[in-house]
Specification:
Blueprint lengths: L6 H17 L4 H7 L4 H10 L17 H14 L3 H21 L2 H12 L5 E4 L15 E5 L2 E12 L6 E7 L9 E7 L5 E3 L13 E12 L3 E2 L5 H15 L2 H20 L1 E2 L2 E2 L4 H29 L5 H31 L6 H8 L8 H11 L3
Helix pairs in contact: 1-4, 4-8, 5-6, 5-7, 7-10, 8-9, 8-10, 9-10, 10-11, 10-12
């Protein structure tokens, strides 16, 4: 078993780190305070090829392998502090673009997928509702066919990119009695009559990518904007969630590596009681734990990428990686704050935001409890 990367792959990671340092904004701390989204950085990353990195060449992507894509995201997480913007990009890539790749018509790909890849359009994924979060298939949003269109009514919430999206992938039921087999996906443009987009929903972390909600009041969607067949939404959602759980936290590995390096440097430089604080075992043990979490989480995530690169199912492995990595990120973020002491608690020092941002990973793309349920089910429990 070879655990090494080839020179071309290592260049992927190094190149995006250098690109981020040279071309992306260095105003993250101020934008984090104000909750400001950087469309400029989004566009630059799109032009670099990040959003289309794993997408097919015929729609403007680079057809990179899943392993290479994870390495790119890891490098971006290391070199760019705006983990919220990276999260928003990943949410679009895996939960909006990937369903378009697998189920979209040529017309849909040309109209929606290709402009998302080049940064012209932003997409939002709309499954969660006020009364159906983890119990996703109990959704109440309805879609009734009337001739050559569907009439959608309902509410959606917790939509990453919601207030800035140009098009929404909305899941609704065409047959409530069929439960999950009635779930169907629709592409709904932001200016569609009857679509009400909420203001930004304030949240604990990931403040520089806005979250929102939708109200759909007799929204007419043409048949050609249905994505896939009627009843295909559950399978589409499940497939996109496996991709998302596999990849959305890859950038967190880079962030954890950055935290570790800063903690090591600070531990050596900061002196108390006549010696570097890294000489105190309580501090060095904390940093050691950060290193162990990073390496263990990295191996779990790479295994998922390896399985998917072979075309093998990775439902349990993706759930384990998502669960473990998200919880490790929270623990290491707290340890980084502790290592830096009072400075780690200060907003302008650039450490505490990881603590706030990391908690979201315990919830989005399936909560930690849901991941444990998936793993238990796969074990036959």
């Amino acid at each position: 078993m070879d655990f090494s990367w080839n020179p071309e792959q290592l260049e992927i990671k190094q190149a995006i780190i250098q690109f981020a340092a040279k071309n992306l904004g260095n105003d993250f701390i101020e934008r984090d305070k104000s909750g400001t989204f950087s469309r400029s950085d989004w566009d630059k990353l799109a032009q670099y090829g990040v959003i289309g990195f794993p997408m097919p060449v015929d729609v403007g992507g680079k057809a990179a392998s899943i392993l290479d894509t994870m390495l790119l995201m890891e490098g971006l997480g290391y070199g760019y502090r705006d983990s919220a913007l990276i999260f928003g990009m990943n949410a679009q890539m895996w939960s909006v673009q990937m369903p378009l790749v697998s189920h979209g018509t040529q017309e849909q790909k040309k109209k929606y997928l290709m402009p998302m890849i080049n940064g012209e359009l932003i997409g939002g994924h709309c499954m969660s509702e006020p009364q159906s979060g983890s119990d996703a298939y109990s959704l109440q949003t309805s879609a009734v066919r009337q001739g050559n269109q569907y009439i959608l009514n309902g509410s959606k919430t917790y939509i990453t990119n919601g207030p800035i999206s140009d098009v929404y992938l909305v899941f609704a039921t065409v047959a409530p009695q069929k439960k999950m087999w009635g779930v169907t996906a629709f592409l709904v443009e932001k200016d569609t009559p009857g679509l009400e987009i909420s203001p930004v929903i304030d949240k604990m972390g990931l403040k520089t990518i806005p979250m929102g909600a939708l109200e759909l009041h007799n929204v007419a969607v043409p048949v050609e904007n249905r994505l896939g067949a009627e009843g295909a939404g559950a399978q589409m959602f499940s497939g996109s969630m496996e991709w998302e759980r596999s990849c959305i936290l890859a950038s967190s590995l880079g962030a954890m590596e950055y935290q570790l390096e800063r903690s090591i440097a600070y531990g050596r430089e900061r002196k108390q009681f006549g010696q570097s604080i890294s000489q105190f075992q309580s501090v060095s043990n904390r940093i050691v734990d950060m290193k162990i979490r990073l390496e263990a989480a990295r191996m779990m995530l790479y295994k998922v990428a390896w399985l998917k690169s072979l075309g093998k199912p990775a439902v349990m492995e993706a759930a384990m990686a998502k669960l473990y990595l998200s919880e490790c990120f929270v623990e290491s973020s707290l340890d980084a704050v502790r290592v830096h002491g009072a400075n780690g608690y200060l907003t302008d020092f650039g450490i505490e935001h990881f603590m706030r941002d990391s908690v979201g990973g315990l919830i989005y793309s399936g909560t930690s409890d849901i991941q444990r349920n998936i793993i238990a089910r796969m074990l036959g429990l």
